[in-house]
């Protein structure tokens, strides 16, 4: 996988810091998060919303480490890279997508204990109805890991 890297450091709440690297571009990109938390967390990470009437009734596939939503508007997937997150797909509230009144998103879910954790995933989206353009999700680029290690070492 080639492409640019983007780094961000953000906090969804007091006592929680997330360092994120984004790598690549269309149709796949990779996200790597280093989460530092002082308490237990329930985490959900989603792929892109896919719209269409079937987004409220099905078109979902999910299993350990992956989830996919396929609609007339296209396909959206998320794959866990190296973890044990559970895949899920679910409809979004009406009008959550600006493009479609009904949409669903693929998700990865896990629980984290207090400490430092690394989460990585590959995310795919296509507006082609025939779905995937590349059979396998990419791996985490070495440059993404190096940048993340420089900004937030895994060991304190």
Short account of what is shown:
This protein is mainly beta. It has one helix spanning 142-151; strands spanning 5-13, 16-24, 28-37, 41-46, 50-51, 60-63, 66-71, 74-80, 86-91, 103-112, 115-126.
Number of helical segments with 4 or more residues: 1
Strand content: over 45%
Helix content: under 10%
Q: What order do the SSEs take from the amino end to the carboxyl end, as H and E?
A: EEEEEEEEEEEH
Question: What can you see in these coordinates?
Answer:
It contains one helix and eleven strands. It is mainly beta and 156 residues long. The chain has a seven-stranded antiparallel β-sheet, covered by helices on one side. Strands 4, 5, 9 and 10 form a four-stranded antiparallel β-sheet that branches. The chain is globular and about 45 Å long. The model has no long low-confidence stretch (mean pLDDT 88).
């Amino acid at each position: 996988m080639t492409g640019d890297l983007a780094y961000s450091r953000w906090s969804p709440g007091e006592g929680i810091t997330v360092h994120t690297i984004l790598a690549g571009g269309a149709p796949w990109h990779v996200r790597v998060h280093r989460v530092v938390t002082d308490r237990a967390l329930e985490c959900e990470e989603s792929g892109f919303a896919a719209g269409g009437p079937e987004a409220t009734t099905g078109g979902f596939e999910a299993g350990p480490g992956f989830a996919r939503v396929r609609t007339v508007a296209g396909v959206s997937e998320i794959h866990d890279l190296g973890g044990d997150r559970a895949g899920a797909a679910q409809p979004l509230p009406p009008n959550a997508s600006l493009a479609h009144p009904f949409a669903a998103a693929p998700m990865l879910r896990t629980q984290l204990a207090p400490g430092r954790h690394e989460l990585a995933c590959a995310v795919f989206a296509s507006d082609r109805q025939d779905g995937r353009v590349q059979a396998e999700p990419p791996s985490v680029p070495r440059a993404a890991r190096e940048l993340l290690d420089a900004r937030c070492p895994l060991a304190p």
